[in-house]
Amino acid sequence: MKSERLAAAVLALSVAASAQPREGSVQAAPKPAASAYAESMAQAKTGETWVHPLFQRLETDCKGPFVALRDGRLLTVNDKGLRISQDDGKTWGQTVAGAHGQHPEEEPGSCHVVETTNGTLVMVYLDLKAKNRKFVWNDQKGEPGDDCSLELHAVRSLDGGKTWVDRQCLLDGYNANFFGFIRTRGGRLVAVTEHLLPNPGRWVVSSFGSDDDGHTWRRSNLIDLGGHGHHDGAIEPTLAELGDGRLMILIRTNLGRFWQAFSDDGGRYWRTIQPGGIEASSAPGHLVRLRSGRLVLVWNRMNPESGSAWPLTHNKQASEFPCSWYREELSIAVTEDDGMTWSRPIVLAKLKGGQLSYPCVFERRPGELWVTAGFASRKWFNADPVPLGLSIREDQLLGAMTPAAPGKASPAEGANVPPK
Questions:
Q1: Highest CATH level, class, for 4-400
Q2: Can you tell me the mean pLDDT for 222-226?
Q3: Which of 136, 212, 280, 385 is the most buried (most CB within 10 A)?
Q4: Which carries the bigger pLDDT value, residue 146 or residue 402?
Q5: pLDDT, tens digit, for every residue of 228-285?
Q6: What SS3 state is found at 93?
Q7: Peptide bond connecting 200 to the previous residue in cis, omega within 30 degrees of 0
């Protein structure tokens, strides 16, 4: 999120300081048996990006967001408008003007586009170019400034992006990055977002739903996990539809794991809110439902694959409690039962001494997964960037995964999905 730049200097110093995991913190999943991939990863050098041998480099310079149009073309958005590719992003056609304040190159996870069942394009985004955009944090009070502003907007196009109509502000105040905007199997549009609240300063999550292709929207109840700090609370949510029609949110926290929330009415209300079982760093993940029905998650785990404990850091302006900011590895896991159990996570890429974070997961075609890193750099925070875009076939990924042991919680610690 944008405010992370304000905390980067403090966090870069504190992350180097040694600290012991607090009692009850989630530990890394058991290390898999020795393998060629594990051995090669252990030999990764500082400043060099290691990539799992099953993953291939993408031939595109775009980090997303992506939309696979019904005619097979690939669509993305930048700060000037839409771009269309006929060759999977190797080249892009002329930009179709449509500058509404979106700027996904600056802030990954700040803009998402969905094509509805009747071909309407709907974009939900942070208005990063607004004149009143401002983030202020009062260190003495530990509170956001009264004039903090980064609005959440929506706009739609009825003619493939040539013109845009019905631009509206969904939420004023200060909002930040989000990793979930989907069309459900019933055609409903649902976006999950985060919002900054005062007294105490913290983040909360809610969703917006539309049943008329983005013409009107309704906001859900708030998901409030407490916390105190400009990076504390319920942060940067991601969203997927389950096989039984319920919706599930995974929420970034500073508590060593994702929290999760469930809705059985299309995101109008989130009645079940609980700690999840997937251990995680203080960083967002991206959860996507594949056309096969499986869910795939890409995220930063709390500790390295090696099993060593990453030092917890405590910037009191950022978080009420110490937390892990480990972002050198991006991991991936799959579930075939809507999160009841997960495969053991594998590391898809590692950048020793740097960061790979804010992932975008995209199913380009059935069974063809793309993963990009919104932030990929040799130094913290986003200094000396080294772009990362990878692809893998779903069947290849499944072949590399170790399933959960029968009768036991998933090695990813399980998601503890409640029954409907």
A1: mainly beta
A2: 98
A3: 280
A4: 146
A5: 999 999 999 999 999 999 999 999 999 999 999 999 999 999 999 999 999 999 999 9
A6: coil
A7: yes
Residue with tokens 């990929």: 376
**Average pLDDT value for the chain:** 89
- Check if the beta carbon of residue 368 is closer than 8 Å to that of residue 75: no
> Among residues 19, 40, 14, which one has the least CA distance to residue 350?
40
SS3 58: coil
Distance CA 327, CA 233 (A): 19
How wide is the angle at C-alpha 239 spanned by C-alphas 234 and 245, nearest 5°? 130
Calpha distance 58→60 (Å, rounded)? 6
Strands (E), 116-201: 121-126, 137-138, 143-144, 152-157, 165-171, 175-183, 189-197
- In this predicted model, what pLDDT tens digit does every residue of 297-345 receive, in sequence order? 999 999 999 999 999 999 999 999 999 999 999 999 999 999 999 999 9
Residue with tokens 């509170």: 143
Query: How many CB atoms neighbour CB 109 within 10 A?
Result: 24
**Pairing of β 355-365 and β 329-335:** unpaired
Q: Is the pLDDT of residue 182 over 50?
A: yes
